[in-house]
């Protein structure tokens, strides 16, 4: 294919992808958020103010990236009209192709709550110390991935293992489209390796369950009413890290929703009020997930908005011995560099699942 043909193909592809972003409505939304940023009372609620500023910055960057790519496409079309710019033109086409691929991946994030921040849970399976160590490895992997995406993470609850690793951890990921990108990670993750916990270094298989929920506010779920009388609040001293104040004062929270039996905990913050808020956010997301499961059972069909995270849904296998391989069982995507994957290099796995989900 000639360079001019490649450019025209890119231009057509960009034009089609751009439609899915509805720039006009995004710019209107940006003006609305910008008006909020000028409110003199905005910083009375610092957490809300931070979210508003983050949303403004993320949306502004998204619009600018699309407009910049549009300019790049125009520029490369002009370059193609000149003679003897072959190498330079090839480089520009390559750069634009990579940007286009990134834009297309973003266009797949069209679920109702994809734009939201995420609440992620990792739970060790059966297998004692081995499984708890595997859960901690996954925790580090996701923290590294979030760091690469410039997303902020905050641990809400962490139950350490007796000897090593963690029994379970709940953490929040703040970032635009964090839920959209991470929701496909829900399911069982399997590790095969030589055990570092016994002298014989026998081959060991361990499992951990990953749950991913969107962070939802009351306005997101107007039809899910949480009555005060249905809540059982318990307060206790944190068993984790967090300084002397956390250890001496009953700042940790355990919240039970009596009608459904759903229980959530939050214990990493220094102040009880903050832990109460995080517990309510987590409960709201859990009730949403329960609603999705009920609707799925009734309708037998929900696309994109609900993906069960159960021990029966193994999604990825990580083999460190006798050979090295990470394989996604849904997309067939593989990597022979598990160290890199466990270091947070998850893009090709997550993007492949987004493409697969879009084609379903």
Helix and strand topology:
Elements: H1 3-19, H2 23-37, H3 46-79, H4 86-107, E1 118-124, H5 129-148, E2 152-160, E3 166-174, H6 178-182, E4 187-194, E5 203-214, E6 231-236, H7 244-248, E7 252-257, E8 262-266, H8 272-299, E9 314-319, E10 325-328, E11 334-335, H9 338-342, H10 347-359
Helix pairs in contact: 1-3, 1-4, 2-3, 3-4
Indicate the CATH class of the largest domain: Alpha Beta
Distance between the termini: 31 Å
- Main β sheet profile: 8 strands, mixed
Structure annotation, total helices:
10
| Parts with pLDDT < 50 across at least 5 consecutive residues | 241-248, 301-307
Anisotropy-based shape = globular
Percent of residues in β-strands: 15-25%
C-alpha-based Rg, rounded: 23 Å
Helix share, percent: 40-55%
Short description:
The chain is α+β, with helices and mostly antiparallel strands and 360 residues long. It is 46% helix and 21% strand.
Structure in words:
The chain is of the alpha+beta class. It has two domains: 3-107, Methane Monooxygenase Hydroxylase, Chain G, domain 1 (Up-down Bundle); 113-360, Alpha-Beta Plaits, CATH 3.30.70.1660. Helices cover 46% and strands 21% of the residues. It is built from ten helices and eleven strands. The strands form two sheets. Strands 2-3-1-5-4-9-10-11 form an eight-stranded mixed beta sheet, sandwiched between helices. Strands 6-7-8 form a three-stranded antiparallel beta sheet, covered by helices on one side. Strand 4 and strand 5 (203-214) form a beta hairpin. The protein starts with a helix and ends with a helix.
